[in-house]
């Protein structure tokens, strides 16, 4: 995909992320000349007609959301079987990565982040858009510390499609609301529950419910009480725990009824961290609906070879349109009692469906992305050198990514922290992010060659080294827009931390401007014409001529030139008093003439060869110690430069190119 152009305008630059539903690329919009993020949906989703139809509707709805706490959706498209979403590009990390790096967050920071998430959800809920997959993985912490919620639309659309047991689903189950786990009605209050789980994780550094399978986790959401936050993190005020548990209430009637209510209490916590959320509820009594035990009945699950399943009760007729059966699972579940209690049935149905999800994995469905059933333990690289850590990572087909350098009592170059943490079991391992020890003073850092690389990528890399970046924009015909033309200091130079690297960044080829005709204009009119055309005024010389004083008689350039080029011109000084007997008229010359004393002045053309130059050059022509003309010429467009010179007799002209005398020419005006 790298280098491919989608929709005739989005140039794929690099892969920046991968999940169960999509691969995320960094791209440049050629039309608007801006960096964007593009999510390319996985193949099996694009083949699902139900999903595609739903996705188009939901993605368009998400595109209507404009809020500082929501990642904007710019465009949706498809071509040649590829479906993609174009979104705002954000420099930052996911909240999941942020929590993993810090272990857990200080409670005030967690509350402030929760408030910003509430603001984003509030905007969506006002437009009746429910996210349905709020989790730290879908929340971005920008480099400036701002919070942005992403994946509106794609999360909602995917819930209507058959989703495999990928890392997205297995990760999402930790944040499922009880009604989602039961297969019940999902609305705005489901987002509030998921946000409550995110708050719990920020405050404690871990999710409240874990298990060996998604089924086990889902059952805990429905029927198990979360451990006290204050027992895990004793610095968290009791009222913060109570607000979090109210957001996590099992029954929707006991939860906050809107994100605005939740954010109001969160604001109050910051002002007076000893309040009690209202209305009060008993967290321990929130599980009443799960206590009833009903008679048992038998349910049969038919699993088809296409991975789908049918659930039917005992005594049902056989399914007539099912393909060859692969397996059959008989389970026992609660039977609806005579009073019409539906909750046990809902619980049984969702449990059955989740069991089917696990069985489909056993029959060959993708498990945790591309690694199938292979689980990996993250190696411990803390305390190692960067070089040694990279050797270990390469053995696992992974990369080491440097997050930052930190001052430490450890030797420079030693890894201080890593994410994911050591010994954690993961389904796949693409990279390990590390923090490296580096002293603030006296450490010399060798800089790379950053030319012909994208500025935003290089800037981030240089800042991680503890260096500063200065950006200078320049026109360039040869270097792509936003790519580095050259740098100061040069590659290989060593700098102390805090030093500045200057990057000269391409703004693309300068716009070409048609040079206005100045001959015949007054000097004032000529200056205005050049200014209006966005051209600079070069040297203005004055020559005696038979034209009226103050009238332009020649100019250095004509045709098409780059915007901002300096154009020189010659202004007539008029005629001096001459001896009538020596005056001539109607001279049959091939160039304009002027008279100086008793001698006619003529104009000659001096041609300068520029074929050996490849970049724009400054040309200055000097005669008798005085500058006759100065101009800038692009040799790639004009391999020769012709200068119009006016004079009498024989004169010597020095041609200086880029400040160096290149050639001396003698011109005879006869």
Tag the structure with descriptive keywords:
670 residues; alpha+beta; six-stranded antiparallel sheet; four-stranded antiparallel sheet; 25% helix; 31% strand
Mean pLDDT: 76
- By secondary-structure content and strand pairing, the structural class works out as alpha+beta
Strand percentage lies at 25-35%
According to DSSP, the number of beta strands is: 34
Overall helicity: 10-25%
Largest β sheet strand count, sense and barrel closure: 6 strands, antiparallel
Measure the end-to-end span. Answer: 66 Å
Low-confidence spans: 157-170, 278-285, 287-341, 358-374, 578-598
Please give the count of helices: 16
Please state how the strands of the largest beta sheet are arranged side by side. Answer: 1-2-3-4-6-5
Using the CA coordinates, give the radius of gyration: 37 Å
Fold blueprint:
Layout: E1 5-6, E2 10-18, E3 22-29, E4 34-41, H1 43-46, H2 49-63, E5 73-79, E6 82-88, E7 92-94, H3 95-102, H4 107-126, E8 139-142, E9 147-149, H5 154-158, H6 167-172, H7 178-181, H8 188-204, H9 214-223, H10 229-232, H11 238-247, H12 259-271, E10 296-304, E11 309-313, E12 325-334, H13 343-362, E13 376-377, H14 386-395, E14 399-406, E15 415-419, E16 425-426, E17 431-437, E18 444-446, H15 455-464, E19 468-474, E20 484-488, E21 494-496, E22 500-506, E23 512-514, H16 523-532, E24 536-544, E25 552-555, E26 560-562, E27 566-574, E28 593-596, E29 599-609, E30 617-623, E31 626-633, E32 640-647, E33 649-657, E34 660-669
């Amino acid at each position: 995909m790298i280098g491919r152009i989608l929709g005739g305008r989005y140039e794929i630059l690099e892969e920046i992320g991968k999940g169960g539903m999509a691969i995320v690329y960094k791209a440049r919009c050629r039309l608007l000349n801006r960096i964007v993020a593009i999510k390319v949906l996985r193949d099996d989703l694009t083949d699902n007609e139900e999903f595609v139809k739903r996705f188009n509707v939901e993605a368009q709805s998400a595109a209507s959301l404009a809020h500082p706490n929501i990642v904007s959706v710019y465009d949706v498209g498809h071509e040649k079987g590829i479906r993609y979403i174009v979104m705002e590009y954000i420099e930052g990390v996911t909240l999941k990565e942020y929590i993993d790096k810090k272990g857990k967050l200080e409670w005030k920071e967690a509350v402030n982040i929760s408030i910003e998430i509430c603001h984003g959800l509030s905007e969506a809920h006002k437009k009746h858009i429910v996210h349905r997959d709020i989790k730290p993985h879908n929340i971005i912490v920008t480099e400036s510390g701002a919070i942005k919620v992403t994946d509106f639309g794609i999360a909602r659309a995917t819930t209507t499609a058959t989703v495999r047991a990928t890392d997205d689903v297995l990760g999402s189950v930790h944040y499922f609301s009880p009604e989602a786990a039961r297969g019940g009605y999902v609305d705005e209050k489901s987002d509030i529950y998921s946000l409550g789980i995110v708050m719990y994780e920020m405050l404690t550094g871990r999710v409240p419910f874990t298990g060996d399978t998604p089924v086990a986790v889902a059952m805990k959401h429905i029927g198990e009480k979360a451990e006290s936050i204050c027992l895990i993190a004793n610095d968290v005020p009791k009222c913060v725990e109570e607000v979090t548990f109210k957001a996590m209430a099992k029954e929707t009637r006991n939860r906050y009824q809107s994100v605005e209510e939740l954010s109001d209490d969160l604001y109050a916590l910051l002002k007076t961290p000893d309040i009690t959320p209202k209305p009060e509820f008993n967290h321990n009594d929130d599980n009443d609906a799960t206590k009833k035990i009903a008679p048992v009945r038998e349910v049969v699950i038919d699993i088809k070879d296409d991975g789908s399943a049918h659930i039917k009760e005992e005594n049902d007729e056989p399914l007539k349109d099912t393909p060859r059966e692969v397996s059959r699972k008989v389970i026992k579940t609660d039977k609806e009692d005579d009073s019409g209690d539906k909750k046990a049935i809902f619980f049984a149905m969702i449990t059955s469906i989740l069991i089917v999800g696990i069985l489909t994995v056993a029959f060959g469905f993708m498990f945790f992305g591309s690694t199938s059933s292979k689980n990996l333990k993250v190696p411990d690289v803390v305390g190692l050198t960067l070089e040694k850590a990279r050797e270990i990572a390469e053995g696992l087909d992974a990369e080491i990514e440097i997050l930052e350098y930190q001052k430490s009592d450890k030797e420079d170059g030693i890894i201080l922290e890593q994410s994911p943490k050591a010994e954690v079991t993961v389904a796949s391992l693409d990279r390990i992010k590390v923090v490296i020890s580096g002293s603030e003073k006296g450490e010399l850092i060798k800089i790379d060659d950053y030319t012909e690389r994208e500025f935003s990528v290089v800037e981030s890399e240089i800042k991680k080294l503890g260096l500063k970046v200065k950006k200078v924009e320049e026109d360039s015909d040869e270097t792509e827009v936003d790519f580095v033309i050259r740098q100061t200091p040069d590659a290989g130079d060593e700098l102390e931390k805090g030093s500045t690297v200057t990057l000269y960044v391409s703004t693309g080829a300068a716009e070409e401007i048609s040079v206005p005709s100045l001959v015949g204009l007054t000097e004032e009119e000529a200056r205005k014409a050049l200014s209006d055309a966005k051209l600079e005024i070069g040297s203005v010389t004055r020559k005696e001529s038979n034209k009226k004083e103050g009238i332009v008689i020649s100019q250095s350039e004509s045709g098409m030139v780059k915007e901002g080029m300096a154009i020189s011109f010659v202004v007539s000084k008029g005629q001096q008093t001459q001896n009538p007997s020596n005056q001539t008229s109607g001279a049959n010359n091939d160039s304009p003439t002027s008279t100086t004393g008793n001698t006619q002045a003529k104009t000659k053309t001096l041609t300068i060869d520029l074929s050996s130059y490849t970049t724009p050059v400054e040309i200055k022509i000097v005669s008798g110690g005085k500058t006759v003309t100065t101009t800038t010429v692009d040799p790639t467009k004009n391999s020769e430069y012709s200068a119009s010179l006016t004079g009498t007799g024989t004169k010597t002209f020095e041609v200086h190119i880029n400040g160096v005398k290149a050639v001396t020419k003698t011109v005879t005006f006869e």
